[in-house]
C-alpha cells in the first residue's frame, strides 16, 4: 500500500525559509523603509480624532521606539495583542482564555548518510516523547552540504514551563540521542552534537471555547478599530499552514491599498483543505494554473 501524501511537489528555499524573510527585509529597506529588530510590542493605541495609531516598542535594555501609522497589521498572538491595546478591549478577558501549544526542536548531527529518505516522519511509539522527526537534507541538499553527515530534527510538543520546556539544552540533546537509539535510527556513537531551538506559541489550541473567544475579540476590534488588521497563525488564532498564514498578510495589504475589503482573509484555508482550482479568500479569481494542481495553493503574481 502506497503511503498517502498531501502533495507531490513543493517549492522550498535552497537554504531554508529564512531566505524569504531576508529577501523581504531587503525589499522593505530598499524602498526607504525601516525594520526594527529586537523590539517587542509594548503598547498600541489609536487616536480617535486623527485615526492614526501610536505603536510603542521595547528592547531588552529598556529602550524602545514610538511609531505613528495609519494602519497596523498584527501577527502577534491575539492574547498578547489584547493586553497591549489601549484602551483594553472589553473582550480582553476572553482573549486571555486562548491557549497555545509550544514546541521545541533538537537538531542532531550524525556521521552517516541520511537516516531516512522522507522530509519527516511521525512517531507513534509510546516509549519515546518525540512526536516527529525531520530530515533537513530532504528539504534541500544545501542545508547539509556534507555527503557523509546527516542532520535530523527531533520535534517535541510541550507547554512553556513544563518539564520538557524547562530542561537544560544538554539534557534535551541527551534525550534525543537516547530516543534515536530506541527507535533504531542511529548509533549514538555516530552523533557529533546537537542544538535546541524553542518556539513559543507554535500552535493555537482549539478547545471548546476558542472559536467563541476569537469571534468575540475579532468582532470588537473590527468594529472599534477597522484599521487594525489581524493576520497569521497566532494573529488570527487559526491553525493555518505557513503559506496560508503568509497569504492572509498579502491579501490584507491588497485590502489596505484598495481602501476597502476586497478579500475576506478569514476565509483563507477555511476548510483546512488543499484546493486544486480557484484562490482561497478570493473566489472570483480564475487565474489558477491547472498544471500546478498537485502543489499547495499559494498566492501568485498576477499576469501583467
TrEMBL record:
Cellular-component GO terms for this entry = cytosol
Q: Where is this region: Disordered?
A: 278-304
Source superkingdom: Bacteria
SUPFAM superfamilies (UniProt xref): FAD/NAD(P)-binding domain
Q: Which GO terms describe its molecular function?
A: flavin adenine dinucleotide binding; UDP-galactopyranose mutase activity
Do you know which InterPro entries this protein is assigned to?
FAD/NAD-bd_sf (IPR036188)
- Bias (Basic and acidic residues): 278-288
Q: What is this protein called?
A: Amine oxidase domain-containing protein
